[in-house]
Amino acid sequence: MTNSEPFIYPVRHANPRPGLRDRWEGAAWRQVPALSIAHFRPESSLHRPRALVRLVADDQGIYGLFRVEDRFIRCVHTGFQSAVYKDSCVEFFVQPRPEQGYFNFEFNCGGAVRVFYITDATRTAGGFKAFERLSPEDGARIAVRASLPTVVSPEITEKTTWLLAFQIPLDLLSQYVGTLHLTEGALWRANFYKCGDETSHPHWAAWHPVDALNFHLPHCFGQLMFVRANGSLAKMPHAVEPED
């Protein structure tokens, strides 16, 4: 897939470092640009939830906050590495080094997590041609807080806004790709998704468009650029959704 304009999101230094309970409009987040997950696959139902995410980082980790204006919300998978993508779900796929693999951090609206380290995303009966499931010990190091209950069943059919905060330690990623340093101007590759495969109104949306009904397409990733707080956004046309 090609696009004449780059999809680049500026990841600012965490100052202050956000907590899992910090609000979308709170001091840690309100000045951080919001990325919009707005490119829906044509296979989706007519439900088009508005999904935004903010991301910051420091030498300890990556910190994110999703905000979703949703309906038809369902959540029944509760365990680590369960099929959270079948529920109302948001996802962060990240490839710190272009010559190596990527991580698929998938979070349902109740806070359950699924994550692999994938080096060959060719589909097979067992999942992918080359991948490693992160262990429960690794999973315990990923901090998550959801604003909705762990289980949502039956569906919430009325309009509801929900939040999902996460914290990923840098040294967890380094276990798989080598030591990482977030230097000024460093570029990682990434994409962000919203889905709900087994909700009553299934949908599949991405930040950078995907050219098939498949989120595991590293060639469709955009870029994360690590910048100081006042990093320029002038050449980042797809990075930010204006605030209301």
SSE layout and pairing:
Layout: E1 8-13, E2 35-37, E3 39-40, E4 50-57, E5 61-70, E6 73-75, E7 89-95, E8 102-108, E9 113-114, E10 116-124, E11 127-133, H1 136-139, E12 143-146, E13 152-156, E14 160-169, H2 170-177, E15 187-195, E16 204-206, E17 222-227
Parallel strand pairs: 1-4, 1-17
Antiparallel strand pairs: 2-4, 3-16, 4-5, 5-14, 6-13, 7-8, 7-15, 8-9, 8-10, 10-11, 12-14, 15-16, 15-17
Q: Name the CATH architecture.
A: Sandwich
Give the overall silhouette: globular
The CATH class name reads Mainly Beta
Instruction: Report the span from N to C terminus.
Output: 31 Å
Order of helices and strands: EEEEEEEEEEEHEEEHEEE
> What's the structural domain tally?
1
Structural class: mainly beta
Total DSSP helices: 2
Helix content: under 10%
Number of strands: 17
CATH topology: Immunoglobulin-like
**Strand composition percent:** 35-45%
For the CA atoms, what is the radius of gyration?
Answer: 17 Å
